[in-house]
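Could you join me in thinking about how sequence relates to backbone shape in a protein? Would you write everything just below, so we can both look at the same thing?
***
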Amino acid sequence: MIDSRMEQLACNLVTYSTKVQPGEHVLIEAFGIDNMLVKAVIREVHKAGGHPHVNIRDHQVIRELLMNATEEQVRVWMENDEQQMRQMQAYIGIRGGLNINELSDVPPENLKLYNQLYNANVHSKIRVKQTKWVVLRYPTPSMAQLANMSTEAFETFYFNVCTMDYARMSEAMDALVALMEKTDQVRLTAPGTDLRFSVKDIPAIKCAGELNIPDGEVFTAPVRESVNGTISYNTPTPYNGFVFENVVLRFENGKIVEATANDTNRINEVFDTDEGARFVGEFAIGVNPFVREPMKDILFDEKIDGSIHFTPGQCYDEAYNGNKSAIHWDMVLIQRPEYGGGEIWFDDQLIRKDGRFVVPELEALNPENLK
């Protein structure tokens, strides 16, 4: 790794993404990585006058905990980590690992228990709502494999994405936020996709390096019961250690009434987690010019230039549509020509075609203007 770029990334995480202030407690939680970036972040938190705290996690250990987990075990685990999270003012999550499928053989009922108890409380209710937080991936050889790149080339790509000029991107996003917040009806088209819904009176939120690294999306949420039609996702979509492909969802009055994939039974088990899992909590437009191809890592894939993601499950408080669920599953559709093309329409106005914005006020978000 390139030490100067790692130090720059650590500085960005502390001073730009979480804006750590003197006296604040910061939880640094690292999954499956070496300690170089963790140590760099600790140094930056100290420079900012904050108090760093560290949890080192391992997905193989989490798998072992979950294989024969009981509700009592998960509840006590949740209560302990919940107490810690309540004392934090900021959270920096650094996630890596050698195998994205590490949890694939955990019994589904145990994963459901983990999501409904641990993740829903420690992360959704406390970390997301009560801390300044940012989550990022860490470049590992396994990620380079997923991206079909050498380790060295992937590290160069990674730091280009993670240390880009997010302040410039943020400014360019303002026009899209304004347009989305004036919009009622949205239509999405692509091969196998024709979907209509309303976003009326739901805020649009720009994401430019403050919650995720890499970043590059503007999100809102559909009016809960307004979604009708079909969407065919054209990227692999990992969830709970299994990679779903060829996912097609059909909606009636907001609800997923038919779901198919390479494992149709398994995907319907996910959507049967609770009532809200079959409704949508987020609609977002991806604009990161450095992220072009899917790599089975949602923190990258949901930012792909020329993409959208349409997310079954829990909505965000900032773009609230009333949907509640233990899941929040970002699934990505790329609309660039090499992926079949596609269009986004706002109130019968074409705003993006084949991945490029076609109205003048949004052209600053086209890739050549963000690099």
User: Anything to note?
Assistant: Residues 108-130 form the longest helix (23 residues).
